[in-house]
Amino acid sequence: MDSTRAARLVNVVDVEATCWDGAPPPGAVSEIIEIGLTVVDLGAGTRLARHRIVVRPVRSAVSRFCTELTGLTQQEVDRGVGFAEACRLLAAEHRAGARPWISWGDYDRHQFTRQCGATRTPYPFGRHHTNAKAVFTEAHGLRKRPGMAQALEIAGLPLEGRHHRGEDDAWNIAALVLHLADRDAWL
Fold first, then answer.
1. What would the DSSP string read from start to end of 73-137?
2. What is the pLDDT of residues 161-172, one digit of tens each?
């Protein structure tokens, strides 16, 4: 791949984390349990690939609420990789440190920062992060920042897959990024 094409590639990332309907159980903390990643070629205007990394939590368990929201079960995440290995995969296989990356809002970036700090895991991403929710809000002249599903409706795009599933959400966010690029509203 030539360097010009590589410069147009970005990673769209969405994470799902352990969650509860209310306060977490004593001693439990929210941990990443799924990382969805879609590679986008901004120059060609296409979504190139979608990836999924299931991550095994160590300081929390998947609640019934979390399973209802994400579809992820404790049995599924128990077969996942450790968080440090997931970060290593992001860096090694998905060029997370070199490619600009995008998420819907700042939650994903903050969750990685917190969990990397708590586990002393090297942060897998580079400095170039874009909050697509902020760009979308500005481009559409909205007063309030919409959730991803609402943004898809505003853009006239379908919700593909299951909402709150990292792999599917990353795919849908990538569609919103391409929508913004088509409007000449991407950075």
1. -HHHHHTSB-HHHHHHHHHHHH-TTTS-EEESSSHHHHHHHHHHHHHTPPP-S-S-EEEHHHHHH
2. 999 999 999 999
**Token reading at 116:** 């990397």
Cα dihedral: 55, 89, 37, 51 (round 10): -80
- pLDDT bin (cut points 50, 70, 90) of residue 187 is confident
154's CB contacts (< 8 A; 6+ apart) are 140, 142, 146
Question: Comparing C-alpha atoms, which of 104, 123, 95 is closest to residue 163?
Answer: 104
CA distance readout (Å), 131 to 59, 104, 114: 28, 6, 18
Average pLDDT over residues 108-117: 98
pLDDT given for residue 3 in this prediction: 47
